[in-house]
Amino acid sequence: MLDRPPSERIVVFVERVAAIMLGLVTLLVAASAFGRYAFTAPVPDAFDISRLALAVAVAWGFASLGFRGSHIKVDLLAQALSPSVVRILDLIAWTVLLVFTIGLVWKLGGRVVSQFPGGEKTMDLRLPHWPFLSLLVAGFVMAIAMTLIRMWRMLVRGESLEPHETLTDDENHGAAHE
Question: Which of 30, 135, 155, 161 makes a 20 to 30 Å CA pair with 129?
Answer without folding.
Answer: 30
